[in-house]
Amino acid sequence: MKMTFRWYGDSDPIPLKYIKQIPNCSGIMGMMDDFEAGEVWDEKKFAKYVKEVNDAGLEIEVIESVNVHEDIKLGLATRDEYIENYKKSIRNLAKNGVKVIVYNFMPVFDWLRTDLAREIDEDGSNSLYYDHKELEGMTPQKLVENTMKTAGGFSLPGWEPERLAELEDVLEKYKSVDEEKLLENYKYFLEGIIPTCEEVGIKMAVHPDDPAWPVFGIPRIAHTKEQLDRIVKLVDSPSNCLCVCTGSLGSNPENDIPSVIRYFGEKKKIACMHIRNVKYLGEKKFREASHLSSDGNLDMFEIVRALYDTDFDGYIRPDHGRMIWDEKGRAGYGLYDRALGLTYLNGLLEAIEKMDKLNK
Ligand SMILES: [Mn+2]
């Protein structure tokens, strides 16, 4: 397994050099906002980005931002053209050494929170926060407004202005799409792209819904073990995989993350991992915590042990961190707390590996 770190390209205030200096960090999970959903990723433009990363001594084998156009999720007649574009992007990424594409099939909203910087009383740091009651008192438009206002001037993946400009129109269209219909459209998409993935050796890794329940009455189909199982069975292929995001799935205490990892890990269905912790504050109410198990409600030792026991050979990155040491940056994506998270995961992994050898 390889440890990696998300990097946003040149708009990221964190230089690649700093990422290279994190112990055992082999590369980045790339996030580029140069291409809109549905657009073909230009091979040359992408090659430049890859070169920049490689020149810093880092690998780039995972890309996290090839967004699925809303027309594909809605099953509109125009979807075929967007699926063709997606296939071209897959080829262009593969030519540049990419092995895994992380994506999601969440309608309209990729991820959402009701506060991007909730202060943590104990230590004065802050982190992303969610309270379903607050969300229920908000229109989707109001949520978008709040999120943009508090983003600190940074672009946020999933909150691209061009995507949200047509919010009302898109929400209206989803009124005729239920879970079954969405799943049908998902299958159509996978049937379209998976043969290309198999041909060029790319794994598609779907990111679970964040948070792990439906919002604003829009269907969501990727937030339980059973739902993820349905997805990997839509098209039976080694290229149809998961990105297990512990914090997204783990926002619902009913999701037992180590058991999810063991179940899909044994089937070789996990291509990559986002690892972070969450602290439950009540029913559908949580904030993000440091990675340390005792700071939140997820057991990081059991999570890493499940990966180790199932011979996980994919990519891991620390997911969102808190904002600490007065760092200013993209919500969840500062340098300090994520780097602490990565070194903590290194420690767990070394201990688990060595204990296992001692016991043999
Ligand atoms: Mn994630």
Describe what you observe in this structure.
The protein has 360 residues and is α/β, with parallel strands linked by helices. It is globular. It has helices at 16-20, 43-55, 70-74, 79-95, 132-136, 140-149, 161-164, 167-173, 179-200, 225-234, 246-249, 257-266, 300-309, 336-358; strands at residues 2-7, 25-30, 59-63, 100-103, 115-119, 126-131, 203-206, 240-245, 270-275, 277-282, 285-289, 315-318. It is built from 14 helices and twelve strands. An eight-stranded parallel beta barrel has the order 1-2-3-4-7-8-9-12, surrounded by five helices. A four-stranded antiparallel sheet has the order 5-6-11-10. It is 40% helix and 18% strand. Pfam families: UxuA. Its cofactor is Fe(2+); Mn(2+).
Examine the secondary-structure arrangement and name the CATH architecture. Answer: Alpha-Beta Barrel
Query: What best-fitting shape do the alpha-carbon axes yield?
Result: globular
State the name of the first-level CATH class: Alpha Beta
Given as residue ranges, the uncertain stretches (5+ residues, pLDDT < 50) are none
The residue-averaged pLDDT reads 95
Number of strands: 12
Question: Which fold name fills CATH's third level, the topology?
Answer: TIM Barrel
Structural class: alpha/beta
- Trace the largest sheet across and list its strands: 1-2-3-4-7-8-9-12
**Major sheet characteristics:** 8 strands, parallel, barrel
What is the H level of CATH, i.e. the homologous superfamily? Divalent-metal-dependent TIM barrel enzymes
Give the SSE string: EHEHEHHEEEHHHHHEHEHHEEEHEH
Helix amount: 40-55%
N- to C-terminal separation? 21 Å
Distinct bound molecules: manganese (II) ion
Subunit arrangement of the protein = single chain
Helix count, DSSP H or I runs of 4 or more residues: 14
- Strand residues, percent: 15-25%
Catalytic activity: D-mannonate = 2-dehydro-3-deoxy-D-gluconate + H2O
Function: Catalyzes the dehydration of D-mannonate.
Organism: Peptoniphilus stercorisuis
Cofactor: Fe(2+); Mn(2+)
